Fold these 2 entries.
Entry 1:
Amino acid sequence: MPRILDNINKANDIKSIKPQDYKRLAKEIRSFLISNVSKTGGHLASNLGVVELTMALHLFMDFPKDKLIWDVGHQSYTHKLLTGRKDQFATLRQLDGISGFPKREESECDAFDTGHSSTAISAALGMVKARDLKGLSNKVVAVIGDGALTGGMAFEALNNAGRLKSNMIIILNDNNMSISENVGGMANYLAKLRTNTRYTGFKESMENALTRKIPGGREIVHCLKRSKDAVKYFMLPNMLFEDMGLTYIGPIDGHNINSLLSALKNANRANKAVVIHVITKKGKGYIPAEKNPSRFHGIDPFYIDNGEPVAKNQTASYTKVFSSALVKMGKKNNKLVAITAAMPYGTGLSSFKKHFPDRFFDVGIAEEHAVTFAAGMAAEGFRPVVAIYSTFLQRSYDQIIHDVCINNLPVIFAIDRAGITGRDGKTHQGIFDLSYLSHIPNLVVMAPKNKWELEEMLEFALSYEGPVAIRYPKGEAYTGLMENREPIRLGKSEIIDKAGDIAILAVGSMVKTAVMVKNRLNDYNIKVTLVNTRFVSPMDCEILEELSENHNVFITMEENVRIGGYGQQVSDFLCRNNKQDIRHINISLPDKFIEHGGVSELFERLDFDAESITRKILDELQF
Ligand SMILES: Cc1ncc(C[n+]2csc(CCOP(=O)(O)OP(=O)(O)O)c2C)c(N)n1
Ligand SMILES: CC(=O)[C@@H](O)[C@H](O)COP(=O)(O)O
Ligand SMILES: [Mg+2]
């Protein structure tokens, strides 16, 4: 039988599908997604949950005139399918392929680039205001998950939207899950709304009574639903959203296209912001994902039959090393507490949670709050470890300065996914943290060269009476240089090899590459001194002074953009100390947003692999 999906080749084609075929189309979309994501990897569970919701939105809206903003954007695959990107799906998240997130440069139907959580309502509200100022009448819809609704920005936007006097629709896609279990007061509140059968029951029995018992009642209900006041008919009084000035519709079955369409049409009549509370099942239609939505939130290629991963990682990741080290440290120090912003698995804190449930805190997708919450605990004598990905910690810049560093509090930042993270692309690369952290007074910034040094740095951080940030990359922890175990001292680097008149100063993850570069240079008879910088702040000026006496080339290497990075600090040092006769080769990432692709593919494309770096050095030295 030909697929209905094959009749959908561009935006709005779904409108020509017969309503009796919607169910079949939803099924076809699910099997398309499962089949493709099993090969490319991606955010499967969230996407399976919003198939009908996306279909309903596409039946309701006109693209690209109307604006649809996906919060986080990890659930936008069906939207991509329905807007002419079906044939590119095999390239999802691959180098030069389509992105796993909405991208304005990819399609005019993608209204806003997302990737970080809780931005959609703000962006949508901005678009509503712009629409009204331009005198247009297009629809603006934001889709935000129950997890993303725990983020501060979402509340700031709702607060602002409460005063709106024109139409804006906010779909609250409630699947009762963040990546892990959704936590906190908002999650509890939504749970109450979900189970509020009293309200739904009341509405249904009113409707039944009117239609059955009153002559002409059916017409009354019909008119009521179509009238300007229809939104009131659906609203539940005395609720958070209502009290804030928004209209609430729901809860609605997010897998029933007809219910979704009538809710959307009703919401569209209001001259204010309307929240449609939609209940969906994360992972719907694929049993392994329904059973384990957390594992299928973001998944590497897997076998469809059983959901097992195609490749099994044997070597320990930095996350795993951090996870075990923290448990060990937690056993020795009962003041140690661990904090995550909704990523207990990704950051490796789930193990700490298991051992010390009372000393573990998941604060929701709230990185700003996580940092100031840690500051509060530190001020009262605890030793908080805040584990956050480099890209998400960008959110907390002011809290790090104002709440942690001005107070000079002993908070440890465990910064995972620092460097190129790969397939999530521009929004998720952790390439700015050295720049946004190393100029902050009081903050010590470190990066380990290998798995043992990560543990040693954590121990050092715990013994230090001030804030410390330790950054480490995604993936396998380096197990080379096991013998190099010089004790860690504040602001002191470690000399791995001393030879010749060229010095390589490598930061953290780049030590591994530097070892390979050094060996390649040795093949050309170029002798190299290799330094593991350990600290980016405070920078080890003594070693720079010492090396400058018998080295005439400094090569700095860091997995961070150039501006504000370690290399620029070294340049500045050479300049300030009148050492411009020393040649400085700065190996860092380009000052641009880096697209999606495999980590090693991106390294090659950016000339950041050992081979390309060696070639660059040889060229610069005119060898
Ligand atoms: C600022 C920020 N912190 C953390 C994340 C990681 N993250 C991506 S999706 C997600 C959970 C989102 O839950 P929800 O909004 O309910 O969507 P669902 O996955 O359930 O569809 C998290 C924590 C992020 N994208 N942005
Ligand atoms: C959408 C999102 O922000 C997360 O799901 C992110 O993709 C997780 O990255 P890791 O897979 O590296 O944990
Ligand atoms: Mg959710």
Note: Residues 46, 72, 74-75, 116-117, 145-148, 175, 177-179, 282, 297, 341-343, 365, 367, 392, 395 surround thiamine diphosphate (ligand 1) (CB under 6 Å).
Entry 2:
Amino acid sequence: MATTTLPRPSLPPSGPLPSLPIPKTRKSSVASLSTPTTPSSSTGLPLPSRSPSGVPSRPPTAPSKIQHVATSSLPRVPQPAVGANTPRALRKTISIGSFPQPPKIPTRPGSTSSNSPISNPSTSPALETSIPKTPNTQRRSASHGGTLKRPPRTSSRANQLRSFTGSGTPSLLNGAGAPSVSLLDLPSLPASRASSAHGSYSPFDDEEDRRGRHRSMDDAKSETSKGGKDKTGNVIVSVRVRPDAPGNESSKSDLEWMVDGRRSLISYRGREGGEYIYDNVFAAHDNNSKVYDSAAKRLVRRVMEGYHGTVFAYGMTGTGKTFSMQGTASSPGVIPLAITDIFSFIRETPQREFLLRVSYLEIYNEKIHDLLTTPVAGPNGQPTQQEEIKLREDSKRGVYATPLKEEIVQSPTQLLRVIARGDNNRRVAGTQFNARSSRSHAVVQIVVESRERAGPNNRAPLPPGGVRVSTLSLIDLAGSERAAESKERRTEGAHINKSLLTLGTVISKLSFEKDKEKGGPNSDKHLPYRDSKLTRLLQPALQGNSLISILCTIQIGSAGSIATAQNHTMETLNTMKFASRAKNNIVSHAKKADEALGDPGSRALLDRYRLEILDLRKQLESQSKTTKEKEVVEVKEENEQVEKAREVQQEQRHEEQMLEMQLARTALKERIEHLNRLILSSRSLGVNANRSFSSLSMRNGELTAPRSARSSTATIDASHLNRTSSASSLRFSRASAASTNLIIAEGHEGPEPEEEDSLGENGDGTATSAVQVRALQADLADKNRYIQTLEKRLLQARRSSHSRVSMSFSPRFGTQPTSPGEEGSSEAVIREKDAEISELRARLDDKERMLSALRSAGRRREVADLSLDTGSGAHNSATLRSSQRISQRTSSGSGSNTSSGVFSNAKSSGKSTATSPVIGTRSPVPSTLSPMKRGSKDSVTRPKMDEMTKMLDEMITERVHQRSTSGTQHRVDSGVSVKPSLPRSRLSES
Ligand SMILES: Nc1ncnc2c1ncn2[C@@H]1O[C@H](COP(=O)(O)OP(=O)(O)OP(=O)(O)O)[C@@H](O)[C@H]1O
């Protein structure tokens, strides 16, 4: 027979999640939820009545009756007392309605309920000898021809296989058990039919389910009142009969079986025949939905409420275990329907929050494989070996496989996909009995975490109450099978059989546990959980920590051949016995899982995630806070920086401005001081040595003679008209005008320095000083104005180079100081001014020298005059002096109007009618001097005067020539317009 092993897809493995825990609270009590079961009552299952030899008894005439009785109207038949010593007599059933009520089954020989009409295969004397052999012994026997007798053929197959719908027999699964005993009979939340994945639910089912439950409970009550069987309650054992393959002829053996689903009874009339009553019996036509509803639905709901639950399918290969657990698209099995219910429950329980994680493993050839982890291809292309998964045990988690991948799921579809992925990875192969036989035990574990949802007013970090963690294990066992043809199949089969045998053995020996509790003779018997991975993994459940639902699948059809029929019968009987032992021996003390209170180290992801979420939220908040603060700080800093920069800029600008101002002020002050110094020295020079020439002033950059000086000069001129030649005066005037830019009238006879001095010294000295002071003041005012003008120009020059100067002085920009050229322009102006001042000083010096020369010439002339005018000239001189004094007095009193004073004085004397000697105009010879006098005087002194004048003229001309050259040069160089007060025409003349 060709066998194929489905290849596993090579997907990258994902990191394993924490392994699934299996709580191990073997000795926990469920007193609060269910009344303790006594050993006798815990055996609960009505088992087939057996003959003393151990062969189940069967009613000899039942089949013929069964087929004619309507199941709905079946009356209950009084239950015969069957005990260990009950004679092996088949219960005679006239009709289904006459089937007896399920008897109480004695748990062990000598038990108080040993009068149960149905004996326990594992404990009844009839089975004492056979049970140790089962299942392997029996299988071995069967494979060697079988030890079981062939049941007598009593009826036709059609009649025998007739099953009865409706559940007249009390069972835990269908809710018929005593409500106070079975957790699985506790009222559950109404089923959410609408949530069924494939619409397998219907209102009819609901109604039927309710009716069935009510009916069953009534039955249970009546049974209890009748002293009927007790049940373990938390363990549900169901048997499902697989329909025969279409086209198979019915064999005689088929007719020996009778399946009564309504009463959860299977009757076998062959050898070792009898009646087997379970919690549920599903006939061939029962669909997966019914199987789930009756065998697993309540268990799943209990799991959602916090109990651990285990559902597993057990049976011979090809009998429909996988079909029952997984189902098909049109008929979903226990696993998909459980998933649907899980999410329905979550939807119906808004007061709690849930977290689901799922793992999927298989035990293949006694090795555990993670079906959710896909092996990765190694360097040689071959898939790398998966890390070995081991079973571990600790007090908190019980027995668990590690490392095992767990996936958190959030929807039924997601969960179904995960499981489908695991199914794809499961090892299946074709065998003699199943084209797609599961070669491994597959365990789906769904861990349900739940906790009370926090109310809107709850401000605690975690919701009140802890996290409850429960586990739903859905196990599809590999089928027991006979030796296969291929070595691989044989090896697989050997492992499968071995593990199943161990499971059977453990379950068989579970009765010893009861003994232990009671201190019975078998209390020291060892339970070989560790003999197989399967039993080791199931240990917590088998020890009673979990609600258990066992679905045993059988096939009673002959499949066409006698050999097959024989084989089937033996296997079916073995399976049925296994189911009976499980029902009788497994005691579940399942209780709700404790709520782990906010333990971060606990395996409850809900708590860990909650705490992590809290932590992350805090981090996020602090981060966003920090970010905000940072942003604020950054903005602040930016603003501050901008503000600072602005302030710095402003400060720098201010500093620059201040510096500039300071510089300008300093420069101006210095300049003023310098100029003042210069002025002072110039004034002092003028006052002390050059009184007449110090009165030179500058108006608007032009050197002019102050009026006082002019007037005095005019006066002097007038007084000296008779003594100076017009030519020399003219020459002097021209020379001095050229050298000093004085505006002196052409033709004006130069002043008589001696006379002037004598006027000051010998005449009205006070008046002379006042005139000089005024002249100096005017001169000073002129100079100040000139300085102001210069300062203004300096300021303008500074302003024009403002930005460059700022840059040069700004430390921020680090630029170089102002270029020498720019600075030079200011300096040039200053230099120029200095030069001008120097020039002026030089001119003053010249004038001084000229004055000295004139004075000495005057003295010499005076000496000459004195020598000539002996006696006669004294009167004229005195008169002249007198008139000069008057004139001087008048001029000093009139101030600026000196000339007019002079003229008025001249008019009053009646000596002068000539034009006034206005400075700046050619002044005619004063008329005060008579021509005769002048002529006589000139004739005497002319040679001397001419000589002196000539000498002076030469000196002045030379000097003027030098100065004019240098002055012109200066003016050209500096560009400063120092206009000569003399008109150009006159200058050119000079
Ligand atoms: N109740 C049923 N109704 C219809 N078909 C069924 C039923 N039970 C089983 N079958 C069919 O029988 C065949 C074998 O069933 P399945 O593979 O579920 O057996 P198994 O017990 O899982 O076998 P194995 O132990 O070898 O895996 C399948 O084709 C399945 O569809």
Note: Residues 648-989 form one domain.
